[in-house]
Specification:
Elements: E1 2-3, E2 17-22, H1 27-31, H2 33-41, E3 45-52, H3 66-87, E4 91-98, H4 107-120, E5 124-128, H5 138-153, E6 162-166, E7 173-176, H6 182-189, H7 198-220, E8 224-229, E9 232-233, E10 236-237, H8 248-268
Parallel strand pairs: 1-7, 2-3, 2-5, 3-4, 5-6
Antiparallel strand pairs: 6-8, 7-8, 9-10
Amino acid sequence: MFLKSNLTIKSSKNPITVIFFTPHADDIEIGVPFMYLEALRLGNRVIEVLMTNNEFGTRRDDFKGHRLRKIRAKELDNANRVFEKYAKNRVHVIKMGYIDGHLPLDNDVLQKMIKLIRNEKPTIIFAPDFWYAQDFHPDHINTGRLVYFTLKKLLKSEQPRRTFYYYSTKTRNYIKCKWKDFKIVKEVLSQHKSQYSPLENKLFTTFYKKLSILRHFFETKKFSESFREQEFNNGFPVAPEEFEKMRMRARIIYFAFSKVTIWGYKKLHNLTPQELGLL
C-alpha cells in the first residue's frame, strides 16, 4: 500500500505529534531519515525518544562508557541541528537513559513508556520492527517490543492513530521521499563521527540506502521509504499471523540478518557495565 505524505497534517496551524522511538543516537539517520525530515517539514511536533546512552558503540575500549556517552550526545545534538536547519522546525528529544546493550524489558520500563505516550498523545509512532527485524541488537528488539506491549496496555482512546515499524524485512507500506534529500541524509549522518568515517558514510548513503530507495521505485514508481504497519483488532495490537508460518525465503532472511547483527553487537560489548563504571 502506498501512503502519501498526508499521514501528517500539512498545515502548521494544526500540527500533530509524531514520535520516533530510537534505540541509539544514529538510528534515525539509518532507519527512517526521510520520514523524520518530512514530519518536521510539515510543521508537526516531532519527538525523538532515545532509549539508551550509547556507551558501547566503538571498538576502542578506552572510549567506551562515560566518554563515549558525552561524545554521542553531542553528535545527536549536531545531527538534529542539521535536520532543523533544512526543515525549519524544532526537534524534541526525550532521553530514557538506559545503558547501551542493556535496555530492560520489564514492567518499570513499560510503565514509563505508557506514561510517556499518555502525556505526549502521539498521532503516529515509528519504532524498530521486532518481528521481522533487520537488526537483532537487543536494544532494537526491546525498543520495538516495548512499543508493542505499551499499545496493548493503552485504552483505545489513548492509542496513536497509526504505528509503523522501520528496520523491517516485511514492509507493505510506502511513504514518498525526495531523491534530492540524500544530500541532507549524508550531511546528518556525517555528524556521527565516532560511528562512521567519510567512506562509510558514502558507502551507506550511496549504496545501501539508495539501493533500497531504487528497489521501492521499481515496486511503486515513486521514491519512498517502506514500513510495516501495526495491525489492530478491536483496539488491541495483534501479532502478525505470518510470523508463525514463515516461508523458506523469509526464514533465510531472518537467519541472515540475525547472525550478522548479533555478531556485530557482540564485538562491541566485550566489557560489562560494571567494568566501565556505569553501575
